[in-house]
Specification:
three-stranded antiparallel β-sheet; single chain; 3 helices; 2 domains; SH3 type barrels; six-stranded mixed β-sheet; 16% helix
Length: 125
């Protein structure tokens, strides 16, 4: 599988290999939570890192995140319907893996304590 075909939010299955069988991970399912360059971040990766690239998979049944060489991860689907909120943006993923913004879906969050505190300091000048 090419590295580019795996991305945040994808639903995946851990491939069956002697290593994943030994670790009790073969066939486990989860979601991609991130990606990294192991030579920079120093994360421990399961499998052989060939292109200095690894993906983080949240293994649902175990409730833990592990880093894998991408050849040990099999794409199930792109998690259509997955929603994320970043600031005031609300994004939903479609079956092709594209993220689309949902306009006007949520009002902005109310200012929290830090925001009110900073505003009060600015008002004292």
């Amino acid at each position: 599988m090419s590295d580019a075909s795996l991305s945040f939010g994808d639903n995946v299955r851990i491939r069956s290999t002697p290593l994943t069988e030994k670790l009790g991970l073969a066939g486990q399912m989860g979601s991609i939570y991130g990606e990294t360059t192991p030579s920079v971040t120093g994360v421990e990766v399961i499998g052989e890192v060939t292109n200095d690239y690894a993906v983080n998979v949240m293994i649902e049944a175990k409730g833990e995140q592990l880093w894998f060489a991408p050849d040990l991860v099999e794409l199930i689907d792109h998690g259509a319907g997955t929603e994320v909120r970043i600031g005031n943006k609300h994004l939903v993923r479609d079956a092709s893996g594209e993220w689309s913004e949902v306009p006007g879906s949520e009002p902005p969050l109310k200012p929290g304590f830090i925001h009110r505190l900073m505003r009060s300091f600015r008002g004292r000048r």
